[in-house]
Amino acid sequence: MKVLQVEKISKKYGEKENAVNALNDISFSVEQGEFIAIVGTSGSGKSTLLNMIGGLDIPDSGEITVRDRRISGLSRKELAVFRRRNIGFVFQNYSLMPVLNVYDNAALPLTFDRGGYVDHEYISELLKELGLWDKRTRFPNELSGGQQQRAAIARALANKPAVLLADEPTGNLDSHTTIEVMGLLKNSCKRFGQTILMVTHNEALAENCDRILHIEDGMLVSERQGDGI
Ligand SMILES: Nc1ncnc2c1ncn2[C@@H]1O[C@H](COP(=O)(O)OP(=O)(O)OP(=O)(O)O)[C@@H](O)[C@H]1O
Ligand SMILES: [Mg+2]
Q: Cβ(13) to ligand 1 under 6 A?
């Protein structure tokens, strides 16, 4: 089942001599449960692409469809709801709420939505799966980088998103923790059929994904299969 379709997306920032074509006519589609790596040099447009798919920014032209929902026509308010219900984000810098403990950070996206209904059983399952159950009452500043990133992954998965968007999720982690976090992402892909798009500069990690999209100068220059291990 197709979960994401990106059709001829373009985005320009700035005007005249300062203009940057951040994305240039990019098209691809993603099946449910695929783990996609997005690679490319710095400034090639990877984060811009994720931001468009996640509805954080709006393309100048083209169409993005998530779970049969075209997002280009949505108002700001509708986009916010769309994001909460369909998209999970994981960033390089964890971006947890410092005043909330691990459990409440993970449950946060749910408390904003669905009339405040939180599936506590699912949150608990996620925290156990991610090896964070013992740390559930800890605050972010009491955790290691890897633990913080795992908490951020729990939060991103809490609303069972159609697509998990991860922008350099292991960029700040040592190699041991990188392997661990990557294993958790793979596991959520295999176990829950979670669709993941991950930006990475780490070639070995990219090779382990199902498919590798290579972006340069805002264009999709190549697309190939990874090992999918
Ligand atoms: N809000 C913005 N305003 C102006 N220019 C922007 C904006 N966001 C991105 N750009 C430009 O668009 C291009 C693509 O940026 P983007 O952040 O997508 O690159 P990237 O591939 O994620 O790079 P990196 O690997 O360094 O994170 C760059 O030239 C950048 O300077
Ligand atoms: Mg980036």
A: yes
The pLDDT tens digits of the residues spanning 96-143 come to 999 999 999 999 888 776 666 788 999 999 999 899 999 999 999 999
The pTM assigned to this predicted structure is 0.94
Kindly report the protein residue whose alpha carbon is nearest to atom 31 of ligand 1: 43
**Nearest 10 degrees: Cα torsion 210, 214, 219, 223:** -50
CA distance 224 to 161: 25
Tell me which architecture the domain covering 2-225 has in CATH.
Answer: 3-Layer(aba) Sandwich (3.40)
44 in ligand 1 pocket by Cβ < 6 Å? Answer: yes
In this structure, what are the phi and psi dihedrals at residue 67, rounded to the nearest 5 degrees? 50, 50
Smallest Cα–Cα separation from 181: which of 215, 212, 157, 210?
157
Q: What are phi and psi of 139, to 5 degrees?
A: -100, 155
